[in-house]
Amino acid sequence: MPPSGVGQPGTLGDRFVARFIDGLILGVVALVLNFVLAVIWNSWLLTGFVSAVVTAALNLGYFAYFESSRGQTIGKQAMKLKVLGPDRVSNPTMEQAVRRNIYMAFAILRVIPIIGGTLSGLAGLASVIVIVININNDPQRQHWFDKFAGGTQVIKIG
Fold first, then answer.
1. Model pTM?
2. Distance of alpha carbon 76 from the chain centroid
3. Per-residue model confidence as pLDDT tens digits over 100-130
4. 3 state DSSP class of 153
5. What range defines the domain where residue 101 resides?
6. Is residue 7 situated within a structural domain?
7. How far apart are CA 55 and CA 33, in angstroms?
8. Rounded distance, CA 137 to CA 144, Å?
């Protein structure tokens, strides 16, 4: 249970909307980067490989940086959510933020020709299913990746 004075655990709905907002931001950035890569290299294979690596790093880096430095991504800020470290007071460390968002790196599977997109999609879908089930079944609304990060928690602050 969070200490008194701290908000309640973030709901699945609020967390979904926050991820959606962040996804729109990251999607625009990735679209521009992928367009630039396609113009630079006139090779479908090379562009796809570099795009997979850059997109996975961009997604994981975005969440890890903002959650460790501010406790909030832009989407979480809009939804008045904040990620707390295991101590329930400070922001998660960079390592904790990477661990709680590590499933974002599954996009790297797209580097595998032909089946990479399918593998990446299935791994992402499996992660989302695990997250939804855990958030709905846990009294603190922590998912498996929060626990993997040492006990981080998303709370509603407003």
1. 0.88
2. 11
3. 999 999 999 999 988 999 999 999 999 999 9
4. strand
5. 12-156
6. no
7. 9
8. 11
